[in-house]
Specification:
Structural class: alpha/beta
Distance between the termini: 51 Å
Low-confidence stretches: none
Order of helices and strands: EHEHEHEEEHEHEHEHHEEEHHH
Radius of gyration: 18 Å
Strand order of the largest sheet: 1-12-11-10-9-8-7-2-3-4
Strand content: 5-15%
Amino acid sequence: MTSRVVPAPIQLDDAAAAALLPPRSLRGHKGTFGKLLVIAGSVDYAGAALLVCTAAGRAGAGLVTLATPESLQPLFAAKVVEATTLSLPEDDVEEVDPEEALARILDHDHDALVVGPGLRPSLSMTELIRGLLGPDEDGEPSPAVLDAEALRSLATVDNWAADVAARCVLTPHVGEFLRLRAADGHDPDKHGDLVFDDDCRVTAAREAAREWGQVVVLKGARTVIADPDGRAAVSPFENPALASAGTGDVLAGTIGALLAQGLGTFEAAQLGVYLHGMAGEAVRARIGDSGLLASDLTIELPLARKRLADGTRG
């Protein structure tokens, strides 16, 4: 019996990331560059939704729409200047009606989704998330970035991966990753040190991607991106300035924008992680390794993309 050869991880650099940049037609318009639907935010975590939407626009999405429970729509509509909003029907204040909300989302024209940042935990939200990711009678579900509450919701469902039909990028930090693996019956201790041991991180992300059938972005220093087919990529960035609330929301919006622009899940995840890392390095060069706010990253995203496109750094 021939053993399968596992390819060495791709070590991401400027050249590898630049090769993934989606083209920008001179005759393009906002529809050309992708329509992203963001399902995020709550009263306590309004900033998460705003960061996702801003990052998505800065990462090149042509049109960003924020879907939010109808009682919160006035709050968010006053804050998201460039994005549009979509109200989701409720059973109670901040409690979406899963069936009605799903119908409204599916009726909305979009190319990709970001689901989870800042959402209020509830059984109805878990039901909505499962409906969004499940089989679609009219075709393949939209590709999606799953972060934060979307990951926590899935971790409450036994064998959750079997019910996910959409092509997804999961973006867990180590704690969320272990929670998802525990839901699969895996012993958290068997993965080794997922903070400091890069080999353990690559192995764990690869195994999860293969078992779940989805791209996994295991966040942290030297973020790992793993594809179900066994490929993996490692980001070079180790930046303590990024240890700040909201930076993961910026990453989710960045990857979502690239999905909406037509990149595949593995490609969008790699480029999104790299642009996010470049943005973090640019802020760190100005202010040092502490004090970075997530909102500082958003203006740096298009500048990072430009440096990659131009083949220049600094």
